[in-house]
Amino acid sequence: MSAQEFAGTMPVTPQQRFDLGALERFLAARIPGLQRPLTVQQFRGGQSNPTFLLSAADGAQFVLRKQPSGPLLPSAHAVDREFRVIGALHAAGFPVARPVCLGDDPGILGTLFYVMQYVEGRNFWDPTLPGLTPPERAALYAEMNRVLVALHALDFAAIGLEDFGKPGNYFARQIARWSRQYRASETEPIEAMEQLLEWLPKHIPASDETTLVHGDYRLDNLIFHPSEPRILAVVDWELSTLGHPLADFAYHAMVWRVPGGENRGLGGVDVTALGIPSESQYLEEYCRRTGRAGVAPDVWEFCMAYNLFRIACIRQGILRRVLDGTAASRHAREAGARARETAELAWAQVQAHFAP
Question: Which residues share a beta bridge with 52?
């Protein structure tokens, strides 16, 4: 499937329609000078919280993110947490969209939502960055690395996020959480997932660290300057919390393990010819920027297996929403159907890098 199919906007799908008049009245009381009527389009990408482009009569643009309709898994789709974290980060000067307002009354649109400023820029879906030169690709990858390092270096307590998560014991808590989410959305037996559910809790690395983590830091969640290799906004903070920075970085680096082509990965791609660093080079750059001596291979491979497991759980949740009729994206069925494939890739990583 072409990456272009995920880019841009489309008419709002029937299952995601909401009361535009109610939204206009809510925003008119909170955005001085808002010019009505508003027009609304739905962003094509994204599988979890449906996201919409709002355009005012005078050309001003905003982005609305809301919880999907229907039953929600426990602790999922926490748009109020997203709003809180982007507010703290925007005040700290970190590149995020400016938050506008939170709709914490589900009576307005049927679910919780928030509105933020629309950031104009480049958004990429294909990690091979077709159409760019090798130096341009290298610059964008260096910028992605730099910004994630900047996030992990933030003093989360100083910006008011000391209670945004529980410090320490991150892997154990996350594995337990995603295991519960998986069981709540399970649709068929997946042997590789059963193996992971048993293996992961028994092989958690001893070392522990706590920083603010994004949880879904990847190319398509970044808005780049229209012409410069500079990130203007990191979006989609649904999975952000206090956690282990290597888990966050390894999730971002999974793109080197995922097959290229329609899977939108770099696996099997000649990255050197494209000007893109290798996985090891990218990790070395992260370590250099953060002052680390390096990362032990068993720790790095555990982080990779854990993140693939987490993605499999997320995709299983998407499949559950497809079956329930509440999925946000028209590509949701395809994404959800890949839960098994992702779990099998995760278990293959374990078998390849750890003794039986």
Answer: 42, 64
The string of DSSP codes covering 42-53 is EES--SSS-EEE
Alpha helix positions (H), 14-77: 20-28
Pairing outcome for strands 113-117 and 211-213: unpaired
**First-last CA distance in the chain:** 36
Residue 245 three-state SS: helix
Question: Is the model more confident about 75 or about 158?
Answer: 158
Q: Which domains does the chain possess?
A: 3-117 (3.30.200.20), 134-353 (3.90.1200.10)
Q: How many CA atoms are closer than 13 Å to the CA of 312, on its beta-carbon side?
A: 32
Q: Are 15 and 299 in contact (CB under 8 A)?
A: no
Q: Decide the pairing of beta strands 211-213 and 231-234.
A: unpaired
pLDDT value of position 5: 47
**How much is the pLDDT for 3?**
44
> What is the full DSSP assignment across 291-336?
T-----HHHHHHHHHHHHHHHHHHHHHHHHHHHHT--SSTTHHHHH
Residue 210 is predicted with a pLDDT of 96
